[in-house]
Design brief:
The protein is of the alpha+beta class and 149 residues long. 32% of the residues lie in helices and 28% in strands.
Length: 149
Amino acid sequence: MAPLGDEPVIIRPAAAADVPALCGLVLELGYAGATEEVSRRLARILADDDQAVRVAERGGCVVGWIQVQATKLLESDPRGEIVGLVVTAAERRRGVGAALVRAAEEWARGHGLTLMGVRSNQVRLDAHRFYERLGYAVTKTQLSFRKKL
């Protein structure tokens, strides 16, 4: 997709009608994005007051999304956490990602949260630099373990 000129970026809540565009962006992020799966996942997220998905739209096309949630842990105060962010390749480095992060931070403030976190795969060096430019700092490194149930 070619950049969409100088049209303004609009950030808004994701809706069921966005699923086809979200699927493409999920694939661009490197994950499976079948329509039924993304539709089911989005519906579950939209029904949960502790998380949200915002989309970036330019020229009537969805060019990115961010998912933010309230993370509530026993060992620390609640915080906002960016758990997913992708901007289509043609729109990167044009302010879309920063606008999405600002929207996630606004959502978190609106939910009474005073700290934001984000995790980023160690191989996504461009993402690390992006978050650092926005004022985020590395606080720890860790391994991620999973077990299929």
